[in-house]
Design brief:
It is built from eight helices and 17 strands. With 402 residues, it is an alpha/beta fold. α3 crosses α4. The longest helix is centred in the middle third of the chain and has 15 residues. The chain starts with 12 loop residues before the first strand and ends with a strand.
């Protein structure tokens, strides 16, 4: 979750060595050169001309706006929230905005009376104010909202929900809510949305079952509830929304840049360009080996992903949307047909991203959100919206989901 820009192409490991592809060439590296392969030459994101928009507004049943990691908006005016608010005002169909977690950096909502409470309130209020024109707004929790695995994570998450409900309109919800794992199920026309709190699986200090109103208290109960929600969706399309992705070409997916290996201190301070070759690779390598539960390489993350993938087989969702990596990505999904990683909800707060074998689009160093139009004929049009420093928006990529 660091500020950076860049991207690279990389293919997987085979037979104990790694193949790096660039411009159609294969370069075979021995196992001891895995570090060098992992910091392969950077490349830009793929671009495609936008597909035609819905011919007329009445053909769109519902428009979804997906935005993640928006919890540190610029007090002078946040460009991404400005663009989102403008887009909402211009949209004629019913709208649903989903905030995909990390709504409050760095550690969730402090208690009343804390010195940092006013700033946290400002940050959450900025997101709520930007979406008051939406028909429905959903806020999901992320790892920062839980204060990672801190002892007070539950308290901070409940404090966020309590304060948010006190200032938001009735159309705004915190889901799954009350620190429950979910899934919270919401139907919007021809779409069923399943909201899951994935940090609940990754080290959150869960409250005792007797202290909550959660319907599901165990992982088995959560998975059974997901299966039931999918099986009962009928003719509806299903979207899964959560903070953590199932697949990503970003840092949490194990992809690191040359800068992070050679100049690792820039992850702490952008101006700390102190070269630390070899030594600097220790941290990325440790994370690739599962140092953090927040990375896909960890045992906890793998277990969660395997369990969710198994549950999704009941009736494959068309889309899984998440944040976590501060990137804009569209990929072929794991357990779902498509994966969107849209965690670039603060302008300039971006993290490294690489091309993978599942990638359809990525925009290194770009900020923005994702717009999904569900048409009355059942077609689904997805667009990646890229935002400038001035708050202007444009489509970087769009596709009809098959």
């Amino acid at each position: 979750m660091t500020d950076s820009r860049g991207g690279a192409a990389r293919d997987g490991e085979r037979d104990g060595s790694m193949t790096v592809r660039r411009a159609g060439e294969n370069v075979r590296a021995c196992p001891v050169l895995v570090v060098l392969a992992s910091i392969a030459v950077c490349c830009g994101g793929h671009r495609q001309q936008p597909v035609p928009a819905a011919p007329v507004a009445r053909d769109v049943e519902t428009t979804f706006f997906l935005i993640g990691d928006a919890g540190d908006p610029d007090p002078r005016g946040e460009p991404v929230l400005t663009a989102l608010q403008s887009d909402l005002a211009a949209t004629q169909s019913p709208t649903v905005v989903v905030f995909l977690g990390d709504n409050l950096y760095p550690s969730g909502m402090p208690t009343v009376g804390s010195l940092d409470r006013p700033e946290a309130e400002r940050r959450l209020r900025g997101q709520i104010d930007a979406t008051r024109g939406a028909a429905h707004v959903l806020f999901l929790p992320g790892n920062h909202d839980w204060n990672y695995a801190g002892d007070d994570g539950y308290t901070r998450l409940i404090a966020q929900e309590t304060y948010g409900r006190s200032i938001a309109s009735e159309n705004t919800e915190w889901v799954p809510g009350n620190a429950c794992p979910g899934p919270a199920v919401r139907d919007f026309g021809g779409v069923r949305v399943l909201a899951i709190d994935t940090q609940w699986w990754l080290g959150a200090r869960r409250p005792a079952a007797s202290d909550t109103t959660c319907v599901a208290h165990t992982e088995r109960q959560v998975l059974d509830s997901i299966r039931t929600a999918l099986a009962s969706a009928g003719e509806r399309l299903t979207f899964v929304v959560a903070h953590h992705p199932m697949v990503s070409g970003g840092t949490h997916g194990g992809h690191f840049t040359v800068r992070q290996h050679i100049f690792p201190l820039t992850d702490l301070k952008p101006w700390l360009w102190l070269p630390l070759p070899v030594i600097g690779s220790a941290y990325p390598l440790a994370r690739m080996l599962g140092l953090s539960d927040q990375d896909m390489s960890s045992d906890a993350y793998k277990a969660m992903r395997d369990s969710l993938e198994s549950a999704f087989r009941t009736a494959e969702p068309i889309l899984h949307a998440s944040g976590h990596d501060h990137t804009l990505q569209v990929l072929r999904g794991i357990g779902t047909r498509y994966q969107v990683v849209t965690g670039a909800g603060i302008f300039g707060h971006t993290s490294p991203v690489r091309w993978t074998e599942r990638t359809l689009f990525t925009a290194p160093g770009k900020s923005g959100y994702t717009r999904v139009e569900v048409q009355r004929d059942g077609r689904v049009r997805l667009a990646t919206m890229i935002v400038t420093a001035g708050g202007a928006r444009s489509e970087g990529f769009s596709i009809y989901l098959d």
